[in-house]
Design a protein that fits this description.
By secondary structure, the chain is α/β, with parallel strands linked by helices. Helices cover 41% and strands 24% of the residues. It has one domain: Maf protein.
């Protein structure tokens, strides 16, 4: 069985259709999910948005947020996730932005966000994780982390005042 099969099963069982909004992972989240049998039933679309202009134009990330918090920030990831949720028919979105290869402290730092409608209102959760390794190792770890976090993210979105 594929390591990510439980993610597909969870999405199916909860009638959730996923879209991704990826910067640092450049489509790896969607690609890794697509490797799993049955994933076509739970995938809507994927945005790959490296450039600032793409984040702004395709997902509605505000320039003010980028200027104030930087491209590698939970705030940008949150706006990416909410923009994807607004722009497509998915019921849940995963987004990330970060630096898989950088000099200094931010090397390997990725910001993740997950958004979905709860009682008709958009909600979003986010987190920042630092991964060890070379560029593509970081990207692979990040894609897996995002997918393996779906159930935890959904629990946080549905019950924001409980510890998860």
């Amino acid at each position: 069985m594929h390591e990510l099969q439980p993610v597909v099963d969870y999405l199916k069982n909860n009638e959730l259709i996923l879209a991704t909004a990826e910067s640092c992972t450049a489509g790896l989240i969607a690609a890794r999910l697509a490797e799993v049998s049955g994933s076509g039933a739970v995938m809507e679309c994927g945005y790959v948005v490296y450039a600032v202009e793409a984040k702004r134009e395709m997902l509605g990330v505000s320039q003010r947020t980028i200027d104030e918090f930087g491209l590698t920030s939970e705030e940008v990831a949150r706006e990416m996730a909410l923009g994807a949720l607004k722009n497509c028919g998915a019921g849940i979105t995963l987004a990330n932005t970060g630096l898989a290869e950088a000099d200094g402290e931010l090397d390997g730092t990725l910001c993740f966000a997950c958004a979905m409608l709860v009682d008709g209102e958009p909600r979003v959760v986010s987190e920042t994780i630092k991964f060890p390794g070379e560029r593509n190792e970081v990207r692979e770890q990040a894609a897996r982390h995002a997918l393996l976090s779906v159930e935890r993210y959904v629990a946080r979105l549905r019950n924001p005042f409980e510890n998860h």
